[in-house]
Backbone:
């Protein structure tokens, strides 16, 4: 433990905290490489985040989730962990992490650490040992090593594909193959192995003892693989639109995951106020299994990420999300963007049938209507923040940052670019460093060239530009979060409203958090419902004949 951490700081949160703080929390995701660069090397770091804590407090968030900060070769942005107990020197030190957690606590902000249990980096000491050990050795048992198929074992053991593209198996010099559901540099752990289980219990305690409020758990729907590694049925292959369905899939969403989660939960329950949220890309029907009593506190609902701008889709996703969470006493956990998906201002600016994985490469650029994307992004955040439960924001969405879709190919860093056979640019476009100032070589990100270049359009979106502009996206987020924090929300309650519009009108209306939220998702203005306006995502205007109208792509909160 860091002796410099003031103990009152660590106590401050537990004193004023309700034990279920996460049930209604707004949690802000920090992609550490790209948030703020404190040491001038072009990469974000802990010093940068610490210097921006006042900004986060003013924004009004309750907690931060920090993407992996561990020692790593950064071949998958840090999701390739070489040492789970060491902060990468580019980001700072473990003592500094502890200091940061305490400083955030002083401002009433909790910190979630990203736990990556499905795989390590190939630079992890266990994998290095496994490679140096012969086939069949105990060191190889901590991962999935096995012989290949074919007369000389020259074919992969089965047909499993890596999420990033290509076979999920790589052959080593002695002929055995190892499993990696993601990049070649990310070997999957063998979760049947007792040492793997014990190791992760210890890692949980390591960060909980240092004040972490809990964990975002990476690829929570994998971990356990089917014995004998049977082929994956073609029809069962998961995609973003058709998430994994268990329990018969050989590597997604297997029932054997849950006893493991229960052992983690027991550890968290030994501490006050800690929580864990599952990144589980499973079907809405299977998601409640992850948030049953004794398991995760939350599981991300990615349904708003995959929903198109369409009233029926939003209505279904909202109703399903609320119902599924309530069925097991959990809370809905909403997300519009994260570091893996096209930023939502850009998503909403593209036609609903655009191929989001490929458009940044294939274009045409003219498909993108930036103004419409921005309008819808403003409307969408007021939908999400009115919903019951907890919300996750992704850094930069409060500035309305678009996807940097035209990054030069030679600068791409995401393994998806190569693994997809250069058919997809990958996720770098949503990971570009934050513009804090409208001028300077890195727009206030730091003193050096940033690790990814910022598009010219970022200058006018900088925090300094938006800070005192009452019409800016940042001001909208601040106002909405302030109102949200005052609205009662201990119960998960939502009622869909019928405002009497004709069938087919793209209007969504519900009450929740003591507010009436009305959305015009259509192209034509709608008559404004009666009531006092609390906040509106756009300008309310008068149609001289019809009176006050709710413009297209606009959300209004009413008392
Ligand atoms: C999900 C993470 O969000 C993503 O960024 C990462 O590439 C994969 N898991 C593998 O860890």
Residues:
């Amino acid at each position: 433990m860091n002796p410099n951490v003031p103990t009152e700081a660590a106590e401050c949160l537990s004193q004023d905290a309700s034990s279920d703080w996460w049930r209604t929390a707004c949690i802000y995701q920090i992609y550490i490489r790209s948030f703020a660069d404190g040491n001038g090397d072009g990469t974000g770091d802990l010093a940068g985040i610490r210097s921006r804590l006042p900004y986060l407090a003013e924004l009004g968030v309750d907690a931060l989730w920090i993407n992996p900060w561990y020692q790593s070769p950064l071949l998958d942005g840090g999701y390739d962990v070489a040492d789970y107990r060491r902060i990468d020197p580019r980001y700072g030190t473990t003592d500094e992490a502890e200091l940061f957690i305490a400083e955030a606590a002083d401002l009433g902000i909790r910190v979630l650490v990203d736990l990556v249990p499905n795989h390590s980096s190939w630079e992890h000491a266990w994998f290095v040992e496994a490679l140096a050990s012969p086939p069949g050795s105990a060191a190889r048992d901590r991962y999935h090593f096995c012989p290949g198929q074919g007369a000389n074992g020259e074919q992969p053991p089965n047909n499993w594909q890596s999420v990033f593209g290509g076979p999920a198996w790589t052959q080593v010099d002695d002929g055995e193959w190892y499993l990696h559901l993601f990049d070649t540099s990310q070997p999957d752990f063998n979760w049947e192995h007792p040492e793997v289980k014990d190791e992760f219990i210890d890692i949980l305690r390591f960060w909980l003892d240092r004040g972490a409020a809990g964990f975002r758990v990476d690829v929570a729907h994998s971990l356990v693989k089917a014995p004998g590694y049977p082929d994956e049925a073609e029809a069962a292959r998961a995609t973003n639109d058709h998430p994994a369905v268990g329990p018969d899939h050989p590597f997604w969403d297997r029932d054997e995951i849950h006893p493991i989660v229960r052992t983690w939960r027991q550890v968290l329950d030994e501490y006050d106020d800690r929580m864990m949220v599952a990144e589980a890309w499973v079907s809405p029907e299977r998601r409640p299994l992850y948030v049953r009593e004794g398991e995760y506190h939350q599981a991300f609902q990615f349904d708003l990420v995959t929903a198109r701008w369409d009233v029926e889709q939003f209505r279904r996703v909202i109703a399903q999300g609320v119902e599924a969470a309530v069925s097991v006493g959990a809370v809905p956990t909403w997300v519009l963007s994260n570091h893996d998906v096209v930023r939502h201002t850009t998503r909403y600016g593209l036609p609903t049938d655009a191929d989001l994985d490929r458009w940044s490469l294939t274009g045409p650029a003219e498909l993108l209507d930036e103004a419409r994307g921005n309008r819808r992004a403003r409307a969408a955040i007021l939908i999400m923040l009115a919903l019951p439960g907890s919300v996750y924001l992704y850094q930069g969405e409060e500035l309305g940052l678009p996807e940097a879709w035209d990054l030069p190919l030679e600068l791409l860093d995401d393994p998806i670019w190569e693994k997809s056979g250069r058919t997809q640019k990958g996720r770098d476009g949503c990971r570009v460093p934050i513009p804090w100032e409208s001028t300077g070589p890195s727009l206030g990100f730091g003193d050096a060239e940033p690790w990814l270049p910022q598009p010219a359009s970022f200058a006018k979106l900088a925090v300094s530009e938006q800070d005192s502009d009452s019409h800016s996206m940042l001001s909208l987020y601040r106002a909405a979060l302030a109102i949200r924090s005052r609205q009662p929300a201990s119960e998960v309650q939502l009622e869909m409203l019928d405002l009497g519009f004709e069938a087919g009108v793209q209007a969504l209306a519900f009450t929740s958090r003591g507010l009436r939220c009305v959305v015009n998702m259509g192209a034509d203005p709608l008559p404004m419902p009666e009531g006092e306006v609390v906040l509106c995502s756009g300008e309310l205007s008068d149609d001289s004949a019809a009176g006050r109208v709710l413009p297209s792509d606009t959300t209004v909160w009413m008392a």
Observations:
- Residues 311-327 form the longest helix (17 residues).
- The CA atoms of residues 517 and 557 lie 5 Å apart.
- The longest strand covers residues 110-115.
